[in-house]
């Protein structure tokens, strides 16, 4: 069967999905007589919108069986590495939770995502074209982790549990449990989501054949998220309070060469992180349903303690702690506007203040302060088959601080000033979309954004890990990066798309690694200009194209949850740097769904990235995050219980192996986690007495009329 035929059948498959979603089912007289019914709504696994891609986690056992980080690495188009961070379709990601920036340093982000169980979240939204209502500091794109669920007029409870293990040099176990409770009454609605995650893992690394290490890692995470909603006539008051606690221990065995002498080392690194967040939101509603006013006050704090001890000489090598406080007040207003066929205007403002202080042995070595005042306006209009968006955001930055660093003798210097950043800047955005029909469109987008250097890379002191062969320091002279992002995309029925985007960054912060004698130095620098090109496409192919005629398929009732199909994602990405010649690389993701007898669902997922491509100043020597995963799941007890068994990275191919080309001779680096794991997961919706209770609006959605996330959303 040729390619044209397969593409035609894929278009047929998509159109059947569309009409199946749009055609309402007629009630028979017999159905009207039924006193009690249970209605189950199937969630879309993937949903494409003009500015974002939405991945459902709650109903996808292949994604929610491990940690949030493990689930993210399975998403087509997302690349996560230690050297380039997290990128989606070539754009660096700023991580939000429930519509709010996490405001944590890059050092703590991985620990947070590894500690959060994936079965505790509802979905992932990747906003590839953030509008004017989002902070301009979102950089290229936003990864928004949505944890909320819908509230009902009766108590509902959902339990999720997971156990998996790895077996390399020894057995290592991982277990997580979470519970979600929510309800509504005449006065208020409430929600409680709590859980724990215990995770054992190992990491092997090799730094230029100079030093090899094996790290035995134990991650412990506990969390509780609470929300209460009060209905005040047409208005609502939303209160949220979240707690996260991480307690991690890493034992590292190393052997290497320093100053021509072989050595062995044994270190214990312990990290304790406590994070708290409180949010109050008042939603004012008017007789005109298109007019809305939201006022939001948020406060978050994060405290981190990091201690590294040399177990051989019984000496404390590092003793760092940090304290972050962030407060912001946000106003958003929307109303309809007579522009063309229809339109609306959105405007608002944000004031934010952040303090971040780090200490080394009780002495403050970094005191960072940032104040941001911003406002925005955005117009949206519709003219026949065209949708238009035009907006701008004005932001005023005032960033300063002091730092101290140790000299070669270990003495702490006197205070020095961080490179200040005081600037007022406009960040425009524009979008034009042509709708061929519902859910089939072509769109072009532009936005200008900024990315502030992570506080951890500003700190000139080592706050990660100390060893004789490593010199890891931040750079207090780093400046923010400015992005111009362009995108064009054709999308059809959420599942098929083809697109191209390019990000042009000025003063992009990148990592460089060099070696002098027996010391490998890790630094962060600004690059004058960086361009990232990304071409990507996704298309579903039903397996029946290989066994049935077109005439037979025209009679078939397409339901994506009930048929066998293959989803193909492919992307080509190239990083252009000003001082070196670079090569691009391909990313492939194949996801196959097969419905076995007894309605058992088999899902296989394969990721592969080609080698020899550039990630900034690094070249991949082996396929990045290459993995083959399988999941088998079945629902029981009227779909209340879902049981899944799974195996990830079956062929043990997932690893990172690069060489740095920022100097000659090159520095070679490799790392390998114990990624081959086997496990079982459970999701149980505890039955309730009142099955006729009506499902209400989401507990804490910013829009009272919709149901997109229970906690405050942008």
TrEMBL record:
Domain Outer membrane protein beta-barrel: 284-684
Keyword tags: Cell outer membrane, Membrane, Signal
UniProt xrefs under Pfam families: OMP_b-brl_3
Source taxon at top rank: Bacteria
Keyword Glycosyltransferase: no
Signal sequence bounds: 1-20
Primary location group: membrane
InterPro entries membership: Beta-barrel_TonB_sf, OMP_b-brl_3
Membrane in keyword set: yes
UniProt-recorded name of the protein: Outer membrane beta-barrel protein
């Amino acid at each position: 069967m040729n390619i044209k035929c397969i593409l035609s059948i894929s278009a047929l498959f998509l159109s059947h999905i569309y009409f199946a979603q749009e055609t309402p089912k007629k009630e028979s007289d017999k159905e009207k007589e039924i006193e009690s019914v249970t209605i189950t709504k199937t969630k879309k696994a993937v949903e494409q919108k003009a500015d974002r891609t939405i991945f459902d986690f709650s109903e996808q056992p292949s994604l929610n069986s491990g940690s949030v980080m493990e689930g993210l690495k399975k998403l087509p188009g997302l690349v996560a590495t230690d050297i380039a961070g997290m990128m989606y379709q070539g754009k660096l990601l700023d991580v939000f939770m429930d519509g709010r920036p996490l405001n944590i340093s890059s050092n703590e982000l991985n620990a947070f995502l590894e500690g959060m169980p994936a079965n505790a979240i509802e979905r992932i939204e990747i906003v590839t074209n953030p509008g004017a209502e989002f902070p301009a500091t979102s950089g290229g794109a936003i990864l928004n982790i949505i944890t909320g669920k819908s509230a009902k007029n009766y108590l509902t409870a959902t339990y999720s549990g997971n156990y998996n293990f790895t077996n390399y040099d020894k057995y290592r176990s991982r277990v997580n449990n979470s519970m979600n409770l929510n309800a509504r009454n005449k006065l208020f609605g409430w929600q409680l989501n709590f859980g724990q995650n215990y995770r054992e893992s190992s990491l092997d690394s090799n730094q230029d054949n100079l030093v090899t290490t094996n790290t035995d890692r134990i991650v412990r995470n506990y969390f509780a998220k609470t929300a209460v909603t009060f209905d005040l006539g047409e208005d609502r008051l939303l209160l949220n309070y979240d707690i996260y606690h991480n307690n991690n221990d890493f034992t590292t065995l190393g052997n290497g060469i320093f100053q021509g002498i072989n050595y062995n080392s044994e270190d214990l690194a312990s990290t304790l992180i406590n994070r708290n967040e409180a949010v109050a939101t008042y939603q004012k509603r008017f007789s005109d349903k298109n007019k809305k006013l939201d006022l939001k006050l948020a406060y978050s704090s994060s405290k981190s303690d990091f201690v590294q001890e040399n177990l051989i000489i019984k000496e404390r090598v590092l003793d760092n702690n940090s304290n972050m406080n962030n407060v912001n007040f946000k106003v958003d207003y929307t109303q309809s506007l007579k522009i063309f066929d229809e339109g609306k205007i959105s405007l608002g403002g944000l004031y934010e203040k952040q303090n971040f202080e780090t200490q080394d042995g009780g002495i403050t070595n970094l005191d960072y302060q940032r104040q941001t005042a911003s406002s925005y306006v955005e117009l949206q209009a519709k003219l026949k088959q065209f949708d238009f968006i035009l907006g701008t955001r004005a932001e005023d930055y005032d960033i300063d601080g002091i730092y101290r660093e140790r000299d070669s003798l270990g003495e702490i210097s006197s205070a020095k000033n961080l490179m200040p950043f005081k600037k007022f800047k406009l960040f425009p955005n524009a979008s034009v979309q042509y709708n061929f029909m519902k859910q089939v469109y072509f769109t072009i987008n532009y936005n200008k954004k900024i990315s502030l250097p992570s506080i951890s890379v500003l700190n000139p002191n080592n706050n990660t890990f100390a060893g004789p062969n490593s010199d890891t320091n931040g750079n207090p002279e780093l400046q923010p990066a400015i992005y111009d992002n362009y995108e064009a995309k054709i999308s059809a029925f959420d599942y098929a798309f083809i697109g191209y985007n390019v990000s042009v960054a000025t003063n992009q912060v990148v990592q460089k690694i060099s070696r002098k004698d027996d010391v490998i130095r890790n630094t962060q620098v600004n690059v004058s200009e960086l361009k990232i090109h990304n071409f990507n496409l996704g298309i579903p192919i039903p397996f029946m194209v290989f066994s049935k005629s077109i005439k037979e398929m025209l009679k078939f009732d397409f339901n994506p949850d009930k048929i066998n199909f293959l989803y193909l994602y492919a992307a080509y990405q190239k990083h252009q740097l000003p001082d070196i010649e670079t090569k691009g690389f391909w990313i492939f993701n194949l996801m196959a769904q097969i419905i076995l007898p007894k309605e058992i669902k088999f899902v296989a997922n394969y990721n592969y990235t080609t080698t020899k491509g550039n990630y900034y100043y690094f070249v991949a020597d082996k396929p990045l995050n290459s993995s083959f995963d399988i999941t088998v799941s079945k629902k029981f007890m009227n779909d209340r219980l879902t049981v899944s068994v799974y195996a990830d990275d079956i062929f043990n191919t997932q690893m990172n192996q690069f060489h740095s080309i920022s100097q000659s001779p090159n520095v070679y680096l490799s790392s390998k986690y114990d990624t081959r794991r086997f496990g079982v997961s459970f999701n149980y919706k505890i039955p309730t007495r009142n099955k006729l209770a009506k499902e209400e609006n989401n507990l804490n959605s910013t829009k009272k009329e919709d149901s997109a996330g229970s906690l405050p959303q942008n």
